[in-house]
Amino acid sequence: MMKRVKFPRSLLLLPLLGMLAGCNMVVMSPFGDIAMQQRDLIVVSTLLMLLIIVPVIFLTLFFAWRYRSANTSATYDPEWHHSTRLEVVIWAAPLAIIIALGAITWISTHKLDPYRPLDRIDAQRPLPADVKPLTVQVVALDWKWLFIYPEQGFASVNELYAPVDVPITFEITASSVMNSFYIPALAGQIYAMPGMRTKLHAVINQPGAYKGFSANYSGDGFSHMTFTFHGASQADFDAWVAKSKAGNGTLDRAAYLEFERPSEREPKRQFASVEDNLFDAIVNLCVKPGQMCAKDMMHIDMMGGAGKESQENREKLLYDTRHAEEGAGTNAATFPAHGNEARSPEAPNKETPHAAPADGGTQGHDMQGHDMGTMGSGATPAPEGGIAPKQLNQSN
Q1: Is position 337 within any domain?
Q2: FRET pair for 66, CA 20 to 30 Å: which of 91, 217, 252, 353?
Q3: What confidence tens digit (pLDDT) does each residue in 66-89 have?
Q4: Are the C-beta atoms of 356 and 332 separated by less than 8 Å?
Q5: Contacts for 125 with CB less than 8 Å, ≥ 6 apart
Q6: Are 164 and 232 in contact (CB under 8 A)?
Q7: pLDDT digits over 265-324, tens only?
Q8: Residue 38 belongs to what domain range?
Q9: Dihedral in degrees, nearest 10, Cα atoms 347, 351, 353, 357
């Protein structure tokens, strides 16, 4: 009678590994020079750590096998306690790897600083002195992306174009809550924060359409907060710019205030023209008429305050970028000062506005160009997960 050979049932899962062939490992196969350098940093760091991990795992398994109970020929010395040569190897190898990782980290942190202008197109080509970077102003909204081309004078929704081998300077902010601007094929992710301006310098080296998205959870519509980044030839980029500017729509302050209302699955479209200095108004939280800009408020603080007259500025500092007063806000888990319970039946699109206005005045400031100390708000913080303090909902 033949003996049956048993195979582990886990082997049945091996064919499923073939499905991984369809995965797009864009982080490890990027198309921009900055992302390629970050990829190389990941590979080098991993290999250095494996120099310790692999021997440790191997020796652990080897010792378990070598000194198993069935192997009576192995020398066993229960009194052994020290070996100088072994101690040198055990401590010198990890120390050398830590020093190497520290040096690589320090160099890469400065070399890949997102605020640092580019000095090369790729590993083989330095940046020509006569090449002018393309400036794109990025605004993360609920739940869509707005890209303003200030030099070309138009704006695009959920669609971004850039010429191949031309440096790009991104100026990034957000309208309400914190987000993260991320195009894996181009460069690393950069946070987008209301009242602040962050930067990213990058370049795309191959034409194609690449996915961009928010890498920071920001509410109900987060899953669909994606956009398409196109790396195009200069001719194709110029044609897209001309087509966009020949279309309809002007993005002035009134149009922006309507556009920033929370919405999901926003279709791709372009505004043929953009009001001057709109992005600066977004950063300084003063798009709405009558709002005091954050930079003006910081100037008042820097000068020592406005005294009793500062009471007149209070209404100008109440920000409602989520339009919660108009019933367009999200649930209390995202906007606690609104007064509704988290995940209430009214949320997110059919909310009943609270009787008192919501507060957004603690959203931060654009600190660019200022060197200032800590500024307190004077408001009592709300308990975690609770309704915002009463004074935040006072109307006067």
Answers
A1: no
A2: 91
A3: 888 888 888 878 888 888 998 998
A4: no
A5: 165
A6: yes
A7: 999 999 999 999 999 999 999 999 888 898 888 887 777 766 666 656 666 667 677 776
A8: 27-65+88-112
A9: 40
